[in-house]
Design brief:
- Helices cover 39% and strands 24% of the residues.
- It has 246 residues and is an alpha/beta fold.
- The chain has one domain: Rossmann fold, CATH 3.40.50.
- The chain has a 5-stranded mixed beta barrel with strand order 5-9-8-6-10, surrounded by 5 helices.
- The protein is globular.
């Protein structure tokens, strides 16, 4: 039986895709949830976490891997809520892995055309927090967006000979800096509230930027929810049982 394994970094992203998920079973140190048509894990942020999550999904029976969640824009044309369907992902070391074209095209046809961007997705070891860093990455890697997990999921799929896809919804745009408090709190499946508060204590003027970012994150999660809504074309395309070059 074909079954998609979905890797999300954050619990809020997972709940947007699958609000009814509950229980789950531990595969090693990773909890895997069985949905009606897929497997899902909340890996936590970063390369190693996503790699472990991918391997747990494969151990649970996943025959294809999808990296799904939010991202930051590198292409200045992308706004909050834009959906990035990666044609290929690039690792922090520059290695490229191509997304399964048939799977990606099926999902692209199922999504609102005005929201979708197909291009290269960059994964980094650390968040890209400044406009300058984003501009450099845009120029040097020709990537339209950045996350911290998709290249690890892509590598796990490539090593196992499984189809792969990455679907990311934009939160922060290329022209804005992330609040330093957010960067300090990043990590794990639940960003640290204590580190967030400590960061705000050091930079209290960022409270407005933090509130705006939280609103954009909620908007991005609403887009994720529309992708995962059971029975709709996007959800069926994401969890499709047929892949392969085409």
């Amino acid at each position: 039986m074909s079954r998609v394994g979905i890797v999300t970094a954050l619990s809020r992203e997972a709940r947007a895709l699958a609000p009814g998920m509950a229980g789950g079973a531990d595969i090693g140190a990773t909890r895997v949830y069985r949905l009606a048509e897929a497997l899902l894990t909340v890996s936590g942020m970063g390369w190693e976490a996503a790699l472990a999550g991918s391997r747990a999904l494969m151990a649970a029976g996943a025959t294809a891997l999808a990296s799904v969640g939010t991202a930051g824009a590198l292409d200045p044309a992308l706004g909050c809520g834009s959906i990035v369907l990666a044609r290929e992902v690039v690792s922090p070391e520059g290695a490229l892995v191509r997304a399964d074209p048939r799977w990606r095209q099926a999902l692209e046809r199922a999504l609102p055309r005005e929201r979708v961007c197909s291009g290269r997705l960059l994964s980094t070891r650390q968040p890209l927090g400044s406009r300058l860093d984003k501009a450099i990455a845009w120029r040097e890697t020709h990537s339209v967006a950045v996350d911290m997990e998709s290249a690890a999921v892509a590598r796990a799929a490539a090593e196992a000979g499984l189809p792969f896809i990455a679907v990311r919804v934009i939160v922060d745009t290329a022209g804005e800096d992330l609040p330093r408090a957010v960067l300090a709190a990043s990590g794990g499946a639940h960003p640290s509230l204590l580190r967030l508060l400590a960061g705000l204590a050091l930079a209290p003027r960022e409270i407005g930027a933090l509130i705006r970012l939280a609103g954009r994150f909620r908007a991005a999660c609403a887009v994720l929810a529309s992708i995962g809504e059971p029975g709709l074309p996007a959800q069926r395309a994401l969890t499709a049982a047929q892949w392969g070059a085409g």
